[in-house]
Each structure stands twice: as C-alpha cells, then as structure tokens.
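Q:
Got a chain?
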Amino acid sequence: MQEVQEVTIKYKDLARSASNIFFCLLSLSKIHYLYHFSLQFFMDIIHFLLNENEGLKGIAFKKKDVRLKFLKDELFKMIYERVGNSLLNKDTFLFVMRLAQIKLGSICQKEFNNLIKESNIVESKLSKSLLDGKLSDYQRKLIEEISAQDRYNNLIHDLEENSSSWYNLIQNPFEEQNIPASWLNENYEQNLVERVSDFEFTISTYLRDMTILRIFRPDVLNFFSRKFINSVLGENFMDINLLEME
C-alpha cells in the first residue's frame, strides 16, 4: 500500500499536466471556432503514449523516475505535434507558450503573467516625450504598470537617463546583446539568485527579457522566445515538423 501511495505521489504532477493540457485544448475554441478537440482525441494520445510508444517500452519498469520524465516530455511533444498541425501559424506560438506555462507549474507564474497580461491603466501618466515620443500610448501604459513592481522599478529612470541604449534596441536590427541591462535592479536580481534554483533563475531571466521585448520589440518576441521554449519543453522542441497554414 505504501508503494502505491509513493507511485501515486510521483505521478501526481504528470496527472496535473495532462489535466491542464486537456482544458487548454478545450479553450482553443475561443481563439478559432474550428479548434475543437474532443476527450476521445486526447485519450487516444494518452493511450498511445502509455501502450504503444517504443521509447517507453525500452525503459525498465524499475526505473520509475526515468519513465516518469520520459512520459512527461513525450506527452508535451505529442500534443504539440498532433494539435499544432491543426492551428494557424499565428496561433501556434500562443499554444506553445501555454504548454510551457503548464509544464512549469507554479514556477515563475508572476513573471509569466507579466508577459501575457494587458495593462489596466486607462490613461498613462508618463510623458509623451519619453524617448523623444517614439513610444505609443499602449507602450507607455505597459511601462508604467510594470514599473510598479520591484524588479522593474528602475525602468522609467533608465529610459530617461540612458535613452541611447533604448534607441538602439528600438531602431536597429535586433541582437540579444542590445537588450539594455542598465535598468536592472541588482539587489532584486541577487536576492533572486540566492532564493531559487539555477533553472528557475534562468527561466525567470528569459521571461523578464521577453517582457521587455513585448513592450519595445514585439516583432522579435516569437524569435527570442525559442530559447525559453526549448529550456522548458526540451531542446529543439520548436523544430518538430508542422504543416504551415496561414
């Protein structure tokens, strides 16, 4: 009985992921009326994963942790491959980001919410002359809202004091090293390094930089996000072949 309980606890995270993935599939119909995925569709994937996957058959039953990791990684890959081929290109990125959020569980949820949430500010109090007026009303709202958080509380000051670095990010062809670092709250970052694992800090840093790019260079966000996605869902995850549908 104790062994059953131990195995149940081990597989609870996988069960949570599977449940959240299914409800994610149901919610896709809100994006496009043709995105409908049934429970039977989902259960067919689970059945194949548990009973017909050759990779799983090659892992001994006694290697419970290895089997569990394989099952979880393979579940996300199979879902992406089978569902991704049914989505328009513009919706695929959103779907993959949601899969990454599900796999992370409770890790970095605050940073993830910063990336996806809309601003609640009706009218920004920031000057329209910020960065010589090169920012839209929407960008100023996002900046003002995110700056209320400790991690981003130096952002507005840095935009004013180090405008040349931000011009470089906004106006020139994108390179990762062009993301300014002068605005970082060093005390916050150091405290975070001491509190969390290396993996969580890496993911948190990716999400922080993605939040900045969402505001200032949304055109390169999908490209930059591949590193984050591969770190969470597995190396070369985004290289899984999908049909291209516009």
